[in-house]
């Protein structure tokens, strides 16, 4: 069929009408709460605009314009994509229509519509749907906007005939699992995607897609009538769906664009659009996020029930009883199922028995829909008397003492709200956010992550991850003590006051109520109180100082406490954020553990004894490297005790082998190698000392995109700096062996240059997270106990160039850096420098240095 060309239509009025209508709807929504009315009205307005555009482009009557995807449901979020299908008859040649269709799609974009378009014949639609479940899903809710009703009716009938509900169900469930895995299988992300995250809108849409494909129903009311859910569950689903839709719509309006991730930057504005206001210690955003997490949790739980019920109807032959497990439970195809719907009301002990069986029975991989529904309906049963029942207390302790399945059981208890109803203070921190740039999980998820980490130490399959921790826990009597401490270590977050002290009181009460006494109770309470202490010693104090080790040993007291605190500390740091833990923190903690263990075993913290041991080990390594006998003396005679205590034997041997021929060299020596511990580069610098030396090196690392993880600075007796850096590239795909030579050459050139002033530090941009939760910069400068050095502590948001900014101030003030502890905690830094005391005894000068440092680290 030949189609004559047409003139380009005048669309100015159409564009003006659409923008005005949309603006009016969004303005009305700002003061209203009916999100369904908004989304339907936006869809109707968009329909009318597309019809007019279709008419202006004079497309043939044999074609059809079809809404697909979410738009096909007759709903449209404020800035969502508008998914359309231009449907062609099978015998219509596309070539003759291509120009007009392109003009129509271009016109739709010009009107301000975020178009997602496809052009297919009916047969092509069916072929694509058969091969791609995403296409099959988008066509499921197809709706004609304009054009041939006959063509659309033919398509709809052929699509329904081709639909296989069982295959569609299996494909969508697999797709859901993959999507959940992308979000770490948790609805508790601090910046959740309200559409795609577990417990988000997509989970609800997926269920209705499956039930629509199976002809079970298109709404929660129809699923209730069919018996797939109860009336109470239908109400809960409608309520949470309305909240999630409203949240997404308000997020779009606040952002002024399509935005489905509830980022920190927007959380406060969105919360205020809901009417939340800051109150006491709780931010408006915190109240909104807590509401979101409870909704996502309920959706996750109810979706699990529905999917199992749908599966039972689609695959009835595989839903029979596999075996009887107890008077209250049977197994059905790997799921734990109650024998009667009222079992938890009749036998409240069975609630905790369910989770104990989940741990104990091989092959049971979850709770059946019937069991989860019964737990959901038994919430009123889990009251004060239930918590105080001695049998329930015994069952809870037995859950914690099982040899396997503890982490999965407690996570399932949290998902079903049983854990929060048994431990009321745990219920308070479900969905509790942490605004410290350190934790990336809500408090309840962090606690369960810490417990999971401790459990992994004890699992043989994971022994390769942290072999020293696995070795310790294998010899630790009654490891359940650690699990209890993990449950309580952060349980008092968000209550105000010191959460360690408040949590200690909770732990003491728990021990008393659960007949935990004596040494075990004391250890649990002590661990909760001191759970931050070991990381503070390791990361903020000089653990090569025997006096520091002795103070820590006096605090710990026994080897059992030391091992317990070490295991809890490693698990805790690992459970905050993937960015926080690194092998250098691990080495600091292990070094502190071993030094403290020696003191607890009766060894006196004698620096000279430790010095001799390290020197002998280093000499043994040097002999293996064929370094001449006594060649080390030229260098070692110039080094003080502190150097040997700050480096292990392997580093001493490497540095000696590099430098023994260059002790009096007039030119700088730089050597770099892949770090023996972790993905990083170890850089050794040996050069005549000068006030700006440390700053010059920091400037080079900053300009080269190398982040300093650790710096150990020494000054020889004859005025040379012997500095050791651990640096990491900000890019993930760097091969450190490949860049080692480049670093050596460039840094030697930089250090050899004379007369060059220190460059101005680059004011690197803060990360988005740091801008949202800024840390108040803090500087503290005070003399150490012996008065020989000054300790400088700096706390600030991390950013590129920060370390150089600090070192430049010290260089300009002629303050020498004797040692440095660089400590990055997520988006925050806690750096400690040991400064030469000469010239800092004057109070006025100290204040000047602190003032300049505060100015330098401010953004």
Automatic annotation (TrEMBL):
List the InterPro entries hit by this protein, alphabetically.
ACT-like_dom_sf, ACT_dom, HD/PDEase_dom, HD_domain, NT_sf, PII_UdlTrfase/GS_AdlTrfase, Polymerase_NTP_transf_dom, UTase/UR
Record remark: domains: Has four distinct domains: an N-terminal nucleotidyltransferase (NT) domain responsible for UTase activity, a central HD domain that encodes UR activity, and two C-terminal ACT domains that seem to have a role in glutamine sensing.
What range(s) does the HD domain occupy?
Answer: 443-565
Q: Name one Pfam family in it.
A: HD
Q: How is its activity regulated?
A: Uridylyltransferase (UTase) activity is inhibited by glutamine, while glutamine activates uridylyl-removing (UR) activity.
Q: Which CDD domains match?
A: ACT_ACR-UUR-like_2, ACT_UUR-like_1, HDc, NT_GlnE_GlnD_like
Q: What residue intervals traverse the membrane?
A: none
What Gene Ontology molecular-function terms does this entry list? [protein-PII] uridylyltransferase activity; phosphoric diester hydrolase activity
Q: What is this protein called?
A: Bifunctional uridylyltransferase/uridylyl-removing enzyme
Organism equals Paraburkholderia acidisoli
